[in-house]
Amino acid sequence: MNIIVAVDKNWGIGKDNRLLVSIPADMKFFRTTTTGKIVVMGRKTLESFPGGQPLKNRTNIVLTRDVNYKVKGAVIVHSVDELMEELKKYDSEDVYVIGGDSVYSALLDHCDTAHVTKIDFAYEADTWFPNLDERKDWSVAGASEEQTYFDLEYQFVQYKRNKE
Q1: Half-sphere exposure (CA, 13 Å, Cβ side) for 25?
Q2: With contact defined as beta carbons under 8 Å apart, do 130 and 11 qualify?
Q3: Strand spans (E) along the chain
Q4: In this predicted structure, what is the pLDDT of residue 22?
Q5: Contact, 116 vs 26, CB < 8 A?
Q6: What is the pLDDT, as a whole number, of residue 93?
Q7: What pLDDT, on the 0 to 100 scale, is given for residue 30?
């Protein structure tokens, strides 16, 4: 299973249920990487999308504790166990966890690859992603050249879980 996320210098990922910044190349990378795949998210992440609608051309799975929650075009699950059962239907390499913070935290240990857009700027954030640079169970497998969007520098970094 994969995780895909954009983080700032402090591994911040959002504020007030919004991304910290929108970088067109990062949005394109997300779209290209996840189109035709399975995306797993929390309810608040889904609700942050335009019109609160599932992403097109993907299988959308929403993890929420709200047993009455329904949304057209998405599969709703209510626990990590129920999610893992649902995910058995798919190739785990095609599954991408896309947020938010509580879903990332709950599923990070189930993932083998993390696609992290690292933005060299510290934003005011209220949600964070675990700092993979400080974790012994993850290491950098590859990184793009540093890129620039206006005055922002960023880089696409791929982390892999270290096999025991």
Answers
A1: 15
A2: yes
A3: 2-7, 12-15, 18-19, 38-42, 59-63, 74-77, 95-99, 113-119, 127-128, 138-143, 147-149, 152-161
A4: 95
A5: no
A6: 97
A7: 98
Predicted local distance difference test score (pLDDT) of residue 64: 97
d(CA 143, CA 99): 22
What pLDDT shows up at residue 54?
A: 97
* Closest CA relative to residue 77, chosen from 88, 65, 59: 65
Q: Which amino acid is at 34?
A: T
Tell the residue number behind the tokens 């700092």, with chain if given: 131
Length of the chain in terms of residues written: 164
Report residues of the chain scoring pLDDT below 50. none
Task: Supply 94's token pair.
Answer: 């095609």
Determine contact, residues 41/102, Cβ cutoff 8 Å: no
Report the 10 Å Cβ neighbour count for 13.
21
E strand intervals along 18-82: 18-19, 38-42, 59-63, 74-77
